[in-house]
Design brief:
Layout: H1 11-27, E1 47-48, E2 65-70, H2 85-93, E3 99-104, H3 116-131, E4 134-135, H4 149-165
Parallel strand pairs: 1-4
Antiparallel strand pairs: 2-3
Pathway: Phospholipid metabolism; CDP-diacylglycerol biosynthesis; CDP-diacylglycerol from sn-glycerol 3-phosphate: step 1/3; Lipid metabolism; Glycerolipid metabolism; triacylglycerol biosynthesis
Family: Belongs to the 1-acyl-sn-glycerol-3-phosphate acyltransferase family.
Subcellular location: Endoplasmic reticulum membrane
Length: 175
């Protein structure tokens, strides 16, 4: 089953359509399980980013898999802002080896009072722990978006307030 999103206008329709298709697939016990990467993006092998909740709204059993590349012989991570697809492909094809550790973790189901977001976070924490990675609360898409000036200013104000309240500035205590 392959579902492609063609435009931002179709995003809501695509989400509803995808959920319906996934539920139909899960309901048919003759079909094989679906492989979903709920992060929606790849990062540099150090952390697990926010999972999209849609994969966890459909019900059914989740079979978590932790995947971590070992970059000693060749790095499989592609920094698309730094390298073209051709350069990346040449790096991968000419590396000594691409070593990947894969851990199949125990199946997980949504608990009685748990919503999709909490379930996704619980699964994410188990995957991160097994892979020795940190858990990040933000979306991987942020790496491709420019940060709004208003957000930067808000964070700067919070930081200034924290610094001045804790005595790091003033009384000769500049650290």
């Amino acid at each position: 089953m392959q579902i492609r999103e063609s435009s931002v206008k179709n995003e809501a329709y695509t989400a509803v359509f995808s959920l319906r298709r996934i539920r139909e697939h899960i309901a048919d016990k003759a079909k094989l399980p679906i492989l979903i990467f709920p992060e929606g993006t790849c990062i540099n092998n150090t952390s697990v980013m926010m999972f999209k909740k849609g994969s966890f709204e459909v019900g059914g059993t989740i079979h978590p898999v932790a995947i971590k590349y070992d970059p000693r012989f060749g790095d499989a991570f592609w920094n698309s802002t730094k390298y073209s697809m051709l350069t990346y492909s040449l790096n991968v094809l000419t590396s000594w080896a691409i070593v990947c550790n894969v851990w199949y973790l125990p199946p997980m189901v949504k608990e009685e009072e748990e919503d999709a977001v909490h379930f996704a976070n619980r699964v994410k924490a188990v995957i991160a722990a097994r892979g020795g990675m940190s858990v990040l609360p933000w979306d991987g898409g942020l790496k491709r978006k420019k940060v709004k000036e208003s957000f930067k200013e808000e964070q700067q104000k919070k930081y200034c307030q924290l610094v001045t309240e804790n005595g790091f500035v003033g009384n000769g205590n500049v650290y």
